[in-house]
Amino acid sequence: MPDLSIDVVAKAAGVHRSTVSRAFSRPEAVKRETREHILKVAEGLGYTMSPLAQALRTKTSTFIPLIVPDITNPFFAELAKTMTQAADERGYQLLLCVTNGDPAKTDGYFTAMQAMYAPFGIVAPSTKVDTEAMKRFDFGHKVVVIDRVEGDDAVPTVTVDSRRGIMIALEHLHSLGHTSIGYVSGIAGTHTAQDRMDAYLELSADSGSAPVVLDSGSDLDAGTRGAEHYLEMDNPPTAIIAANDMVAFAVISALGQRGVRVPEDVSVIGFDGLALGARFNPPLTTVRQPIADMGHIAIELAEKQNIDGSVDHIVLEPQLLVRGSTSGPRK
Amino acid sequence: MPDLSIDVVAKAAGVHRSTVSRAFSRPEAVKRETREHILKVAEGLGYTMSPLAQALRTKTSTFIPLIVPDITNPFFAELAKTMTQAADERGYQLLLCVTNGDPAKTDGYFTAMQAMYAPFGIVAPSTKVDTEAMKRFDFGHKVVVIDRVEGDDAVPTVTVDSRRGIMIALEHLHSLGHTSIGYVSGIAGTHTAQDRMDAYLELSADSGSAPVVLDSGSDLDAGTRGAEHYLEMDNPPTAIIAANDMVAFAVISALGQRGVRVPEDVSVIGFDGLALGARFNPPLTTVRQPIADMGHIAIELAEKQNIDGSVDHIVLEPQLLVRGSTSGPRK
DNA sequence: AGTGTTATTGCAACCGATCTCAGCAACCGA
DNA sequence: TCGGTTGCTGAGATCGGTTGCAATAACACT
């Protein structure tokens, strides 16, 4: 294809290139027939504007970075999926940035995105976000965080109500007759992770039963360790709340290897609502986060902040998703 | 930050901007001290070159698109993960493009990437790739496909030896004493999927036992249907090969819901070697694909093609990964 | 000293758009 | 008929770099 630039189209349409430019990016500024003619000619040539050149000139592109610690984690994968779509709908291109939990990489992405004139970015952190540090980057001012942040900082956030989620899990388990309910903390050192744990501790105490934290680690093996701890107990709980679905999988897997069956011997409930959970063995009962909504909302918040500088903190409602990993306690 | 352009740095360093440009992109063309001075000044200012401006001028960027049908599928997620890293190491930025199985989207991404001067791209297809159609796009000439393609076409590819993989699975099962081995086909209508199926049919016949295809669909429910089919059989096989890990998960899950236990009642072996499989219940025995290698190789192939136009077809060796979902047949 | 390299650096056009400003024609009311 | 809008289009500078070419300096050799 002979290089297609705006000038080529302009010549072909017999107008100046500034007119072509306007025909595309500010249609109302061009006489109707002229515009239609130009568009037709452009179409015929198979011409599309160069996003690069546009970005360079206008200092604003359509790249929007989604910074996640690990795309292999289905939660982030689902988030990425809905966000690509949400971004697409609005004419953005999602740029997936994987940090592997290295905060330094986040910084690197920030400056890179700044250089690409990204209008804003979305960060799904793996640690408690230090908004102060973040703000040291120009780009830190145009970011939406998918987690809670400390204080009511000037960074928009989307989260699900952790306390409510744990409450739902607890209620479900109570309604099945469980009174001794353990907890396995999970991957990621986010505020969200912290909140879930705190909520468990608090609500558990409220209901009169002593909390049993089987593991409070934040690495991939929390589930395995939690299961081991469970096995060592004389009087293990009859149900376990896992801080997230991945941990729940690990718990059930580790338990299964020792001959403990779910939900016959012990009930397990996760937190996330991953699609994958439906195909687990057994299908995982879980507290569902509206991941798709989070993706859309994150982008909306970002746009909103960009326009009027408003900083919102959206807290979504979790939902109980009953599948097969919970049942009444073993007699 | 006051806009940092090459001219600012040039002024600060007391040289012309072309010298600054060279100091960065063609170091050997600048006197050593000058270069070091410039770099120091730039560093002090916190300056980095605009990839956009560079791309615009040189007509070649560092964006490399990875086109996948579904990032939610752990196979693609793992691929994306290793590829981001591989890309990073070579100074590229991976642009994740999700098609959701819509071929039209692939076309769209092609032209978009062309416009961004991506030097090349990687496609992990969800259907048999039509290289002819692909070549109609300029960008189709700079793509590496993660699948086999028809004929020895002019498109570089990376795959794992499907036949060998199925053979490994079969051998493993045979060695455990299984003689009746079923097969559940899987997600994706790729050549790879086809090859696995064909290999099963052929090798199965070779070994004297009649092939039992429990399901040949290519959607997400293949596993579930396969399990149902299994349950309806009078003389079900004692082992099942699943076309990929996700399907294996679904099969085991569906079976589990009907009280059929793996591996006690029936052995199941997957194909992919997903990390997730280690945390399944039971941990999934599977034929491992060297996904990390595939990512690196894909990028190498692309670079190679870019440089000398060579088109290679790399076929990797799969490996048996024995975990907990296979055992001897039930007596 | 004169001439021929070779190493460095500056100059200025160019990549493909955007956008301000100016020019021009048509239209309006007095 | 004339000054004043209003609507549309063209000119040309600009975004932040790259690069071929020319200019200059430094050094070698006859």
What is the structure about, briefly put?
The structure is a homodimer of 331-residue chains. Chain A is α/β, with parallel strands linked by helices. Chain A contains twelve helices and twelve strands.
Q: Work out the strand percent of chain A.
A: 15-25%
Helix content of chain A: 40-55%
Q: Any idea what the shape of chain A is?
A: elongated
Distance from first to last alpha carbon of chain A = 74 Å
Work out the radius of gyration of chain A.
25 Å
Largest sheet of chain A: 6 strands, mixed
Contiguous low-pLDDT stretches of chain A (5 residues minimum) are none
What sequence of helices (H) and strands (E) makes up the elements of chain A? HHHHEHEHEHEEHEHEHEHEEHEE
Query: What assembly state would you assign to the polypeptide chains in this entry?
Result: homodimer
Structure class of chain A: alpha/beta
| Secondary structure: number of strands of chain A | 12
Mean pLDDT of chain A: 92
DSSP helical segment count of chain A = 12
Largest interface comes to:
A-B, 51 and 51 residues
User: In what order do the strands lie side by side in the largest sheet of chain A?
Assistant: 7-6-8-9-10-12
